[in-house]
Amino acid sequence: MDRRRLSRQELIRARRGDGFVGREGELTAFRANLHRDPADPDFRFLHHLHGQGGVGKTSLVQRFEQLARDRGALTVYVDESAHSVPDAMAAISARLGRQGSPLKAFDKLLATYRERRHEAEAVLAGPDEPGGEPPPSPGSMVIARAGVAGLGLIPGVGPFAGALDTTHVARGAERLRGRLGARLRSHDDVQLVLSPVEVLTPVFVRELGDAADAVPLLVLFFDTYEATGPLLDTWLRDVLFSDRYGLLAQNVVVVLAGRDALDRTCWADHLDHVTDVPLDAFTEAEARQFLSAKDITDPGTVDAILRLSGGLPVLVSTLAGSRPGAADAVDDPSDTAVERFLKWETDPVRREAALAAALPCHLDEDVYREAVGAEAAGHFGWLCALPFVTGRGGRWQYHEVVRSAMLRLQRRRSPRAWAERHGRLAEAARRWRQEYAGDRGAGGCRRDERWRELRLGEIYHGLCADPRGFLPEALSEVTATAEHEPSAVRLVAETVRKAGEDADAPEVRDWGTRLTAALDGADGLVAVLTALLARPGLDLPEQVGIHRLRGREHRKAESWQQALADFDRCLELAPDDVRGLVGRGLTYRYQREFLSAAMDFLRARTREPGMVSAAFQFAEVMRLMGWHEGALAAFDRTLELDPRHAPAHGSRAVCLRRLGRCEEALAGLARAIELRPGYAWAMAERGMAYWTMGRYAEAFAEFDRALAHNPRYGWAYGARGSLRLVTGRLDAALADLDTAVGHGTATEWTFARRATAHLLRGAEAAALADCDRALAADGDGPPAFLLAMKAGCLRRAHRPDAAREAVEAAAGLAPERPVVRYEAAMLASADAGVRGAASAWEALRTATEESRPPGSSDPAGEARAAVVSRCALGDWDGACTSVAGLLGDGTAWEHVADVEFGVRDLTATWPERDASAGGRLEAVRHLLLRRMDEAAAAGR
């Protein structure tokens, strides 16, 4: 495509520019700057036009754009249709592409971002993936804001993100990364979704520079900047003045045009680089020059136009548009601006068409034909040529000053005609959106930009036609949008507000204002739903839906009690609401109240047997409760409903592993990965299966593979670190476990494993700190082994009272566990000596007579209790027999190291031992050290 080929709209603007009059000083300065070398210190790369509505900012921008094109520049125009930074970059890229300078790599990355964003929205709105043990926590609303403010996934954040608790946000963002990491394909995808501006902008800036290298200048025009500035300010400042996103080409020029001055809190340090261009009404000389150029020279006519327009350029241009020949053609007793705009259009059909076409916020030819009468249907080209109508991207719109006046005139002149015309436009928009929807469901439609545009048009015109009658439907759309596309809630709220203003309907306007204010507040979508729920006359299905949605948002915020209260109310109003049952079940599941969760999922499954999510979640909580046989059957039922349900294949495989059917588990996980390439969770679970089979090299390979796909997958770091601990790689184990904790996904298990690693390295203080963290993070089951581990740390730190308190707490939970008896015996030995504590050691030896092989359920396993108790009692042959029997070939390094640690622990506690006992202890320890070397070699 020829870079210099202009579109029809651009040619029209160029022809208009040929007749541009006034603003000579501004044009001269801008023209002179275009001819400077960008490396010249006097070259100005940032211009800011500002002034009241109707002062001619857009016209001057268009003239600036034509001057830049005449200089051979690439030019791009962005207006208020850009609702975010990615939108702005997308608009710039699209315009450059039409001029033969596509940003190919950026466009490809942008398409990926949009696809992954919808997947991310599904993660935030729906249930979690199955996770490790225990499952990951759901992300909170604040967490979502931490990563998704730039996306608009949570309405009302973005420019208001600074008001959030940064500590909570930082912690929450890491946990959200874990949720998304299990669903998305790679770490790069997670980064793209959570930080789209950070990922997209460097590619955008690089390719923008490539485009700029091929031309003298590349000029970006941002019009109506009062609307987009709050969203774009910080990004644009960083692009222009920092190297955060890369180096910007020196021949890129930016022109901002808006009503307001620049935000000093953002731009204060750079105002010396801004060329400030304040615009006011035409001076009398400029207005006369403009009129003269239009061949309007009659003194009376000129004076009348000056008086009626007040020098406002848009009004001067409009009044001059039909070239009145005499003062009486201007002097109209009507005090409405509209009559002045259309005074010299003598064709009544065109006059009415101009009025009717002002009703839609945006026009294309289809909308125009619906707005006007049949006799005016062929005048769309005439309308687009009017001085107060501008077109961009196939859509046209009136200047706001003119449109507002025309709306007021029509509303007051004939309320009936106003309602009928808006009603016709609303019905057309309804018909078009129904045709466009096809067979897509509610969610698919609301995620489609064109469908939303049609629906918003229907809402706007419906509210203008019948404010009171259509308001319930408009507010119901807020609820529906919140359910399926939370990022679009603001668009609906702003449409309601604008309709209320344009129709002069206070109730509608107040609702729009209330909803947008709620979105901007700390509670965001929850506040919107609360406001909707308080609406009088709400019917039962809407109450049910809003309670269910608000429960979902509370659950995402981890406000468990509020979530349960909403789901309880939802089910009180509609006991058979299956989505409410699943929502409450998920809330119970995340609180680890698995039995309650299972009951809700079972009820949902019974009421709607074909509901895949209910079937899957029922199976999942059975797995989490350890009912693996029953879970297998439940997962089979899920897969009957949806054979391609990758998480069901994966969770079913976990059950098989738990039942010792590891080969079948590997096959199931392979199927899950086949269905979802890049499924990091399934890869990590395959690592667990290989671990269980003792195939450590393959286990490490799978953990490595999972982390290559998702380097932020904290649970996989924890699992790999734990296996490294098992195989004697202490430094690497600690590095992995530290990373898992750093990603904010650590559980009781993670901290307990790290505490064990610290103990084996002799870092007692660090081990004690992790014991405390593990106890604070405790989820399921009695933490007796953690309390016993903590007691040992306290005892070795010479804090016997605190140690005794911890042992007593552990004994209250599990008095028979060998690890608890072991610590009790150690404390008794510290008080009375090892010989004096013989009864405690005898009780421990007796308890371990039928000791199980060391397992993962008890970090200080039975082997330590068995060997150390016999050493304490002087039963050296029994100690060696226990070493041989419990720590034979194939025993993991960690289990042998744990026993060796126990022997060292006994040695330190037994200062009164004789030389014989000391020699015997050392012999047992050397035997254990040899076994550790053998186990470490085997683990490699």
Structure description:
It contains 48 helices and 7 strands. It has 940 residues and is mainly alpha-helical. A 5-stranded parallel β-sheet has the order 2-3-4-1-5, with helices on both faces. A two-stranded antiparallel sheet has the order 6-7. Helix 23 (467-484) packs antiparallel against helix 24 (489-502) and helix 23 packs parallel to helix 27 (540-556). It is elongated. The relative contact order is 0.05. The model is unreliable at 15-19, 125-172, 329-336 and 851-860 (pLDDT under 50).
Tags for this model:
5-stranded parallel β-sheet; 940 residues; mainly alpha; two-stranded antiparallel sheet; elongated; 48 helices
Our count of helices gives 48
Instruction: Report the biggest beta sheet as strand number plus sense, adding barrel if it closes.
Output: 5 strands, parallel
How many runs of DSSP E, i.e. beta strands?
7
Structural class: mainly alpha
Measured distance between first and last alpha carbons = 60 Å
Fraction of residues in H or I helices: 55-70%
Strand order of the largest sheet: 2-3-4-1-5
> Judging from the principal axes of the Cα atoms, what is the shape?
elongated
Indicate the radius of gyration in whole angstroms.
36 Å
Instruction: Classify the beta-strand content into a percent band.
Output: under 5%
Overall pLDDT confidence: 84
Uncertain regions spanning at least 5 consecutive residues: 15-19, 125-172, 329-336, 851-860
Q: What assembly state would you assign to the polypeptide chains in this entry? A: single chain
Summary, kept brief:
By secondary structure, the protein is mainly alpha-helical. It is built from 48 helices and seven strands.
